[in-house]
Amino acid sequence: MNTRVLVTYATRFGSTSDISDTIAERLRAQGLDVELLPVQDVTALNGFGAVVIGSAVQYGTWLPEAVEFVTAHQDALNRVPVALFSVHIQNQGKDAASARQRHAYLDAVKPMLQPVDAVFFAGRFNRKGARELMPKWLARFMPPVDSRNWKRIRAWADGLPTTLGLRVADPVG
Question: Which residues, other chains included, contact 21 with Cβ-Cβ below 8 Å and sequence gap of 6+?
């Protein structure tokens, strides 16, 4: 069984990169061989037994480079287990409307993939991000917000080997 895993991501301001780092660390701690790369640095998927793809959400959808990655590698991605994660700052409620909006973030990639899991993590929003998305004069007044739930992120990462159908080495005790 191939326990080599690609964790790849698209980030705009670093929050998704930070989450990807944590996921890769947690998988490595379970004995998996993990390669961590931004989507634009992935040239081929040969040799991977599973793929974890994450993207920041901007304007209600995955970043263009993440969608382009899925489009370019669709055939290879459909031959291995794939788990998806989205990082967003809106629609964090537990209500049905928020859930529908979160699931819509994946509309651009859902027709191309059959992921074994898809999860949504709240992200971080800082002044750098604010300056990109709103008038600069208004961005100065935006307080930084970090809504990442690291306990939830680590728990999801710890369950990924089972979710992806990978066998991990027995812990040395």
Answer: 36
Question: Between the CA of residue 103 and those of 40, 80, 99, what are the distances in Å?
Answer: 24, 22, 6
Cβ-defined contacts of 132-141 (< 8 Å, 24+): 132/12, 132/13, 133/58
pLDDT tens-digit readout, 15-56: 899 999 999 999 999 999 999 999 999 999 999 999 999 999
Pairing outcome for strands 61-62 and 50-58: antiparallel
d(Cα 81, Cα 5) in Å, to the nearest integer?
10
CA 3/CA 51 separation, integer angstroms = 10
**Residue 51 forms beta bridges with which residues?**
6, 82
